[in-house]
Amino acid sequence: MTRPVNRRSFLAAGAGLAAAATVGGRTAFAQGTPEAAGAVVPPTTDTSVSGRIRYQIVPSGPNDVNVLQEFFDTTFRETYADLEVVVEPAPSGSGDPLLASMVAGDAPDIIDTWTSRATPYIDADQILDLKPLVDRDFSADALADFFPWVLDAQTLESGLQWGMPRYVNIIVLWYNRSMLEDAGVAEPDDSWNQDTYRDAVLALTQKQGDRTRVYGGHIPAFAYNRFSHKVEQWGGRVVDPEDNTLATFDSAEGQAAAEWHRQLMVDEQAITDPQFLTTGGGTAGVAGALANFGAARIATVEEGFYPFAYADAIGENFPFAVAPPPAGLAGRSISGSADGFSIWAGTPNQDAAWEVVKYASGPDFQRALVGLTGYLPVRRSVLPDYLQIVSESRPQLAEANLQVGIDLLENGDPHERPLFAKDAEAEQLIDAGLERIFVVGDTPVDYLVELAAQVTEAMRA
Question: Which of 27, 136, 98 lies closest to 380, judged by CA?
Answer without folding.
Answer: 27
